[in-house]
Structure formats: C-alpha cells, structure tokens
Amino acid sequence: MKTIAIIEDNEEVRENLAEILELSGYKCITAENGKVGVKAVREHKPDLILCDVMMPELDGFGVLKILNQDPELMHIPFMFLTAKAEKSDFRKGMGLGADDYITKPYDDVELLDALEMRLNKASKLKTIDNSDKGIRRFFDVAKGEKELSKLSEDREVRTYQRKDTIYQEGQYPKWLYHVVQGQVKTIQTNEFDKDLITHVYGEGDFFGFMPLLSSSVYNDQAITLEETVLRLIPVEDFKLLLFNNRDFAAKFIKMLAQHADHNEKQLIDLAYSSVRRKVANALLLLEHKATDGKIRVMREDVAAMAGTAKETTIRTLSDFKNEGLIEIASTYISIIDEESLIEMPQ
After folding, report:
1. 178 and 230 in contact (C-beta within 8 Å)?
2. CA dist 167 to 53, 164, 177, 194, Å?
3. 150 or 295, higher pLDDT
4. Does residue 138 sit in the same domain as residue 158?
5. 64 assigned to some structural domain
6. What range does the domain containing 291 cover?
7. What digits encode the pLDDT tens for the residues 66-81?
8. Cβ–Cβ < 8 Å for 305, 287
9. Which of 6, 26, 242, 334 has its CB surrounded by the most CB atoms within 10 Å?
C-alpha cells in the first residue's frame, strides 16, 4: 500500500483529501502546517507528498526547499495544492523541483490520475537505467544548488513550437539550455543521411553542455518534439560557476560520466539487441520523458531512437499493440504493460 503525506492547513480540505485517498487504497499521513509536515515526512518517508502552498509558519515552497536538501527525501514525488493559479506561482513551484501542481477546487478523478502517474514514474525510476535522469539528480544534490538557482534566475526564456530547431550541427554554442516545459531530441546524422536520436530531454533537464566544455561546435542537432519552453543560460555564467565551485564541478564530472555511460549502452543496444528490444527501450525512455505518460512523437522518431527502419518499427509497434503491450491512438502511444517491455528479451 502506497503512503501519501497530506500537508494542508485547512482542516476540511485535509480530511476530505485523506478520505478520498483512503477509499482509493492509499494510506494517508496528515499534517496541519509545513513544520509538522516536514517532521512527518522525515519520520514516515511517504511515497508521495501533497502540499498546500499558502500556509502559516512555513509555506509549501519552504517545505519543498527543506526536503530537497535531504538526500533521503529529495526524490519523493512532490505535488503542490493551491487555490492560486497565477503563472508566477506555478513557475516558482516547478523551478524548485515540484513534480506537479494541482489547483483547487480540483476534480477527484484528475487528482487520482495525477497521483497514479507520479507514483508509477517514481517506481519506474528505480527499475529503469536512464542516465539522462542523472542530469537533474546531479543539480539537485550538488552543494552548489543555491548558486545554480541564482544562475537560472531572470534568464531569457524562449518558447519553441513543435519541430523547431534549437541548434544545428556545426554551430558554436552560446547557451546552456534548461527545459522548463516540453521535450527536446538531439540527433546525429551519419554519412548515409540516416538519423539517430541520441537523447531525449524533458522538464528539468539541462542539455547542450558538451561543446561548452570543449569550446567546440555542436556535433548534433536539437529539435523540439512538442511545444517547448527553454531557459537560456549564457556560457560565460555557466563556466564561472563550474570553475569556481568545487562541489558543483565534482557533481558535474559525475554527470558527464553518466552521460558517457548512456552513450556506450546505447551503442551496445544498437549493435546487439533485437529489434523488439530496441523499440521497447525507445518507448520506455520516451514515456518517461512525457509529462502525462503519453508518447506524442512520430513513428520515424521512434525508429530514429531505436536505430531501426521506419517500416520495421511500424510493424513492431503493431505487434506490441496486438500483444496488449501498448495502445496506439491517432496522436499518441500509451504503454499498457510496462513490465513486459522492460523484460523484453534481447
């Protein structure tokens, strides 16, 4: 049974939430303010936290900031509850590392769906080796987190439409990119003009850092998979932090090692895995990066990520659908049997 912590100063809302969740099979821990909530989370280590934003003594932003400083608690999914829907509050919460944001009054079904999705994603992180997630974890655990927060504040924010090009191969880098919202793919093209998707970045991820370190041009191309909001951090500011904060630099080196490990595993996968395994791995990664669990990419994107021909990928997806592993709609793909995809034979 999953445990949910509810931190809410309104007694009626708190009790109503607990009742709904308990009827849905969850165990609930309740706290009437932020200070009590932090103590309860430390004691019980719940599977997910629902926290009001506006509370006396310690507000929701303060609760999240405290929990993010504890390595044992920082990876617990955190969802804000608030009656305020202003964009500034939303961005502040997500910028601090919240996983979702529910506005009151909320729909019971939508709330339960959001909870289930976040719990499933948290569970999957424990079983799937996805080194891209190390990028966000690295920035969270670094002692230079405060400096990074300052680095990201008041920077230029740009909105890109689906299929927009962010940078092209051969260009010199000017920015470190931070994904505020949406998804970005990076592509490398071989001598036969065949594309391979090397990485997919989602909310909270940073990308475009390799050429910043080597002072070289991009060796890939970055394109949006959907409408995307990026924060642009000037290369000079990034290097200033990197070369003047030893803790930040140490964690960044670790992240680079994870990035290289991902590339090596991808090459091994492309060389030795079966077509079914390649397509399954591509779907799992794309689903992990999707904010709502629905994969909204074209079939050729799945093929480019799996390193297989488009026709072969389409046939494999059709087989997966017939086997009940996935659901294919007109605009998205949903994973139905995640365990079978994870355990797909080589």
Report:
1. yes
2. 37, 9, 11, 18
3. 295
4. yes
5. yes
6. 273-342
7. 887 777 787 788 988 8
8. no
9. 6
